[in-house]
Amino acid sequence: MPSVRVRDIDVYYEIHGDGPPLVLIGGLGVDLTVFAPFTERLARTFRVLTFDNRGAGRSDKPDVPYSIPMMAGDVDALMDALSLSRAHVVGVSMGGRIAIELAAGRPDRVDRLVLVSTAATGTGRLRMSLPARILGLAKRLHLIPGAGAVQRQPHYAYQRQVAASTSYDGADQLDAIEAPTLILHGRRDRSVRPAAALATRVGIRDSEIEFFRGGHMFFLLTQRDEAAARIEDFLQDWRDRHWPSNAAQI
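The structure assignment produced for this chain is given below.
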């Protein structure tokens, strides 16, 4: 099973598909198996790098304070370790905040940015919408392919991630994002209110937003093909661009 040393931790990662490189950053309290069907769908077009954030799955889980900038630094270092100079980045929920931090701090890393069920600021406390609860239950009941193979997240690690995500405020960094950005959001999202997603769109130049049925992340299950097709369409013109040869090494 592939893992690589990234700063102070070992990070578990997987690579799926062939094509333009795409980094998929997952969300709070989950490992990469939760997004396996979505990853498989994207891997029809892209070479998808997916991984477990610190504190989750098969990556290390140090019992120290976490932060969104820290986890963005993990992604930056992971790309270095895999000789990936630049890629599209898709961030889901907490992973969207990590993607925002990465795109603002390292614009040279990110070609195009897709933010799913996220916003630039936390609320100070965790709000779990019904769809997000259902997603967690599906994982615990092993209804998501491959999810049963991964160890349960320790409570301390979950709380470290919660603190990092809910305390994050990246609103002041949005104007530093140079990458064209697509925001996908659920109309009934109660974890990250649609108004917060709209505020994020206003803060990012050259960005657009599209709403789907349902709540937090739920359209990745119920409308997976539609969401993936929208992402592919947004990234379409990338295929005709010239990229460094090391982009194909991951």
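Interim note for the steering committee: Residues 242-249 have pLDDT under 50 and may be disordered. The longest helix spans residues 68-81.
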